[in-house]
Amino acid sequence: MSEWPAAAVDYVQAITDTKLVLGHRYAQWSLAGPSLEDDIGGSSAAQEEVGHVRQLFRKLESQGRDGDWLRGERDPEEFANASCLDAIDGDWTEYMATIAPVDRAAWYMLDAIDRDDMDGMITKMGEDEYFHLEYHDARLETLADENPEKLRSTLAETLPSALALIGPADVDDDADPLVDAGFTSQSVEGIRERFVDHYRELFADTDVSLEDVDWDAPDADAWDETRRRVGGGGVREEDLVQIRGERNAEFAIE
Amino acid sequence: MTGTTKYAVFGRRNEGDDTLHLGTVSAHSDRLAKTYAYNTYDEEDWNYLAVVREEDLLEVEGGNVRREVPQ
User: Fold this and answer.
1) Quick count: other Cβ atoms within 10 Å of Cβ A123?
2) Cβ <8 Å between A139 and B32
3) A37 contacts B25? CB cut-off 8 A
4) Beta strands B20-27 and A229-230, pairing class
5) Is the Cβ pair B40, A37 closer than 8 Å?
6) Are B32 and A146 within 8 A, CB to CB?
7) Which of B25, B29, B38 sits opposite A142 (nearest CB)?
8) All domains in chain A, ordered by first residue
9) What are the start-end ranges of the H helices in chain A?
10) Distance from CA of A192 to the nearest CA of B (A)
11) What is the predicted ipTM?
12) Burial, B66: exposed, middle or buried (Cβ in 10 Å; 0-12, 13-18, 19+)?
């Protein structure tokens, strides 16, 4: 496999770490849904995200990233997951309003990659993601009806976090190094536009106001381009213990 | 969009096969019912998968036809 630009490795790392923590969150909440169907949907998404992560790890290893480091042998501050996934402490509405924008943002970023040697993998992931995103939107529609205030206040936090994962607004076609290198076919600005348009349209005829959302986030000067977020923080140590599988290490198949 | 509706789920393994009744899901909307059906009945790579609101199923009713048994 040919060598990617350093910025492309960081870009795929952020998608991968986001999917890694996302899969973990899906699994953690998969028995807490309001119905059996929601639990099955969450469990199914968890398995698929873990499958995507496995494939992406292989790609990153081919670009020189260490396998053990990828699988969790690192500090929380070395993970480049979307910041809103660091912890989800609220109720099921907050959970759904957190994972939905992040899963969509990560998919749009993957979908923007324009490489023949990743095309088949991304197409397959897209088949899985279609049902993740359909499920999220269908659920957000029902929650907009049942719990609009909680949905509004959570989205005011999570949409800017997902936008930070995508990147700052000033990274347009002329300023996007990945477009310039031919790694992606859509600039950060284009991905953001697709993302923002989707949520504006989804909530247009609902009681959920998106007026409080900072659609200009992240501030380019404060943005960490490696971790694709603003500010520090990271997943908790107990999450890392689970992600690494530390307590079950003795059962690992070498 | 309040309350749940029961949906019957139908699937077909291959084109030309019979469409089978797989089970049911309960959902708040048609859109949600389709994703529930996809996730819940994913034991096969269905060639066709559909949901129908149970209230839209039309029962085929008929009286008891008197059998004329020849003597």
Assistant:
1) 10
2) yes
3) yes
4) unpaired
5) yes
6) no
7) B29
8) 6-251 (1.20.1260.10)
9) 6-29, 36-62, 67-70, 92-111, 116-146, 148-166, 177-180, 188-202, 237-244
10) 25
11) 0.76
12) exposed
pLDDT, one tens digit per residue, over A118-162 is 999 999 999 999 999 999 999 999 999 999 999 999 999 999 999
Interface membership of A207 toward B (CB under 8 Å): no
State the architecture of B5-55 in CATH terms: Roll (3.10)
Q: Give the distance from residue A1's alpha carbon to the nearest chain B alpha carbon, in angstroms.
A: 32
Which residue from A minimizes the CA distance to B35?
A: A135
Rounded to a whole number of angstroms, the distance from the CA of A71 to the nearest CA of chain B is 27
Of A98, A40, A22, A201, give the one whose Cα is nearest residue B27: A40
Could you count the other beta carbons within 10 Å of the beta carbon of residue A166? 27
Give A17-67 pLDDT, tens digit per residue: 999 999 999 999 998 999 999 999 999 999 999 999 999 999 999 999 999
Classify the phi-psi angles of B23: left when phi > 0, otherwise alpha if psi is within -120 to 50, otherwise beta.
Answer: left
Contact state of B2 with A145 under an 8 Å Cβ cutoff: yes
CA dihedral A89, A128, A142, B24 (to 10 degrees): -110
Q: Checking phi first, is residue A8 left (phi over 0); if not, alpha (psi -120 to 50) or beta? A: alpha
Contacts of A137 in chain B (CB under 8 A): 31
Write out pLDDT tens, residues B28-45. 999 999 999 999 998 889
Domain boundaries, chain B: 5-55
8 Å CB contact of A35 and B26? yes
- pTM for the whole structure: 0.91
